[in-house]
Amino acid sequence: MRNSFFLVCLVLSGLACAHAEERTSDSYTACLDKANGATSAMQDCIKEELERQDHRLNTAYQALTGSVPEKRRAQLRDAQRKWTAFRDANCRFYFDPEGGSATRLASNECVVTLTADRARELENLKRK
């Protein structure tokens, strides 16, 4: 494990970070390591990883949508919309305007890890 990754985990101080390496890409870990604790560089890493995980999520969602019976598609769409609302509300809570840049990092990291988790969940549902 890289030292900078652990620094990010300390900064983010969330349970989500405990398994972030398993959830996210190797390039994300490498990017955070290279950021060496610089907030703006870490935000850039988070932005890139969110784009990667969002694409993965959309791909998994589309694949699952195409594989479920027509009558279940509306249920899946409703569940996905509710999940998105939950993710956004939950991760907004991590951001405390009085908490400095660490809370912004924590909020953005929350979005990344929950998106990666949901992508994996939908990928697993497609396999069943």
Structure description:
The chain has helices at residues 3-12, 15-18, 20-23, 26-35, 39-67, 70-94, 101-127. The chain has 128 residues and is mainly alpha-helical. The protein has one domain (3-127): Substrate Binding Domain Of Dnak, Chain:A, Domain 2. Helix 4 (26-35) packs antiparallel against helix 5 and helix 5 packs parallel to helix 7 (101-127). It starts with a helix and ends with a helix. Mean pLDDT is 87; it is low at 1-7.
- Helix/strand/pairing category: mainly alpha
Q: Can you tell me the CATH class?
A: Mainly Alpha
Per the CATH scheme, the topology name is Substrate Binding Domain Of Dnak, Chain:A, Domain 2
Query: Mean pLDDT, as a whole number?
Result: 87
SSE topology string = HHHHHHH
Low-confidence stretches: 1-7
Provide the number of structural domains: 1
Query: Proportion of β residues?
Result: under 5%
Q: What is the molecular shape?
A: flat
What's the end-to-end separation, in Å?
A: 33 Å
